[in-house]
Amino acid sequence: MTKRVGFATRLGAIAAAVGSAVGLGNIWRFPYEAGVNGGGAFILVYICCILLMGIPVILSEFIIGRSTHSNMKAALRRLSPGKKYYLFTYVCIIGSFVVIGFYSVVCGWIIEYLYQAAMGNLDGHTSQEYCIMFNSLVASPWRCVGWTLLFLVLNFLVMSRGIEKGIERVASIMMPLLFLILIIFCVKSLSLPGAKKALYFLFYPDFSKLSMRGVLDALGQAFLSLSIGISCLVTYSSYFKDDASLTKDAATVGLLDTMVAILSGVMIFPAVFTFGVEPTAGPRLIFEVLPGIFQQMTGGYFWALLFFLLVFFASLTSTISLSEIPITFMIEEHKMSRPRAITWTALFTVILAVLAALSFNVLDDIKLWGKNIFDMMDYAASNIFMLLGGLFTAVYVGWIMDRKIIHEQLTNKGLLKSRMEPYLIFCLRYIAPVSIVFIFLYLTGII
Ligand code: PHE
After folding, report:
1. Would you say 58 and 246 are in contact if contact means Cβ atoms under 8 Å apart?
2. Residue located nearest, by CA, to atom 11 of ligand 1
3. CA distance 377 to 101
4. 118 lies in a domain?
5. In this structure, is residue 2 part of a structural domain?
6. What does the pLDDT look like over 324-381, one tens digit per residue?
7. Cβ atoms of 46 and 214 closer than 8 Å
8. What is the residue range of 21's domain?
9. Substitution candidate for ligand 1 out of 32, 96, 99, 223 with most atoms within 8 A of CB
10. Beta-bridge partner residues of 368
11. Cα gap 374→379, rounded to integer Å
12. Cβ < 6 Å from ligand 1: which residues?
């Protein structure tokens, strides 16, 4: 059994949690989901989901993690002795593998673009050529699998260096830098001729464009983006120190994550409308649009390089937190050594990631409900696993967990004030479960 370490500093702990939350979910997935679902109305619903469900569930995961300083299974066993709630941990572990499976393929694409940017190949093309470039990447099994595996090797190398040295250091430097560069790109993008149309698209809520499936997508996107529902933040907060204010930290993570998502939208859409790309292009959206923005900038070569480097680090801090879920679990519950737990996690991840990477080429005729393996994993991750996990967490903390422990965690045993407690409990007891169950029932045709 390894000794439990904590994050060295409070800022480091927040940076790591923000590092987990901010990733491809914000920069790659949010803009395309907003594009597919019509823009403004989707974003408004998304923000409501963050405030009414996302932040309360983050806080709940923090409460479970820090009150027990252990992984989800041990935590639930300790909080509810003699009960079987801890079995839900297995759903979380499977969920974390599904997320990292498709996610690392996109990380692979990011490395290919980083490579192309370094070689100067992103410059001087028409938007149609950028389209062809992306198509040729996903059509090549070797390139897709190769880059994905390279990414996973890097990921597991960082993992082997442990929590404090690996995760905390990477996150504390890269996150602020990413924020800064996003703002610079937004300013540039807003000077493009398509800016006015883009802002209208992003911020004018036209509810006629939003379907009930779009509402589910917004909720799933919010949970994926905040890294909630698969016990990731339980695992991280189990390393938090006892003097951190959980409420403040949860709000900080939620708000920063949302800001990065919206900034990514503001960065992408002016270019979408300027270069005539379809906003509904889906997962390929940013890969076809971004090179066009870099081209418009003086020193575009360096901006492209810097951008893909930062997105690469943002994704790495997310996959690190994802793989930490099964690793901590195996170490603590199955008494494995860290290297052994890393090896098993890497093995399962590689199998899923290779399947996802091949689903655009060799395995592209394997489809279920019109979705290839990659799309199925993407959909199942956010719209099933994370929502179920969010539902479980909300109901567990709202209805089942001992209120005294919740109060203790929110106030740090009486040292802090906790004005948000009634609001939190109300969201967890009523708003989150009712909304999630309602959307599920509606979409499965039961109501
Ligand atoms: N939140 C991450 C992102 O937006 C993805 C993630 C999900 C990370 C679940 C950890 C756990 O990119």
Report:
1. no
2. 227
3. 8
4. yes
5. no
6. 889 989 998 999 999 999 999 999 999 999 999 999 988 888 888 888 999 999 989 9
7. no
8. 10-78+85-443
9. 99
10. 371
11. 9
12. 20-21, 23-26, 99, 224-225, 227, 230, 232, 318, 321-322
Residue 4, number of CB atoms within 10 A of its CB: 12
Q: What gap in Å lies between CA 167 and CA 171, rounded to an integer?
A: 6
Question: In the prediction, which pLDDT does 32 show?
Answer: 93
Residue 364 lies in a domain: yes
CA 61 to chain centre: 15
Q: What is the DSSP string of 301-346?
A: HHHHHHHHHHHHHHHHHHHHHHHHHHHHHHHHHS---HHHHHHHHH
**For the chain, what is the domain count?**
1
Q: Is residue 5 part of a domain?
A: no
What angle in degrees, to the nearest 10, is found between the helix axes of 55-68 and 212-226?
30
Tokens 């948000």 belong to residue: 420
Joined tokens for residue 227: 């890294």
CATH of the domain at 370: 1.10.4160.10
Instruction: Note the pLDDT tens digit of each residue in 166-191.
Output: 666 777 777 788 889 899 989 988 99
Cβ-proximal residues to 38 (8 Å cutoff; 6+ apart), any chain? 206, 209, 210, 214
409 CA from centroid of ligand 1 (Å): 24
C-alpha–C-alpha distance, residues 234 and 225, integer Å: 16
Taking 80 as the threshold, does the pLDDT of residue 436 lie above it?
A: yes
What would the two tokens of residue 133 be? 């470039």
For the full predicted model, state whether its pTM sits above 0.85.
yes
In a 3-state reduction of DSSP, which class is residue 272?
A: helix
Task: Detail the DSSP E strand segments found in 363-423.
Answer: none
The b-or-e profile of 306-341 (16+ CB within 10 A means b, else e) is bbbbbbbbbbbbbbbbbbbbbbbbbbbbeebeeeeb
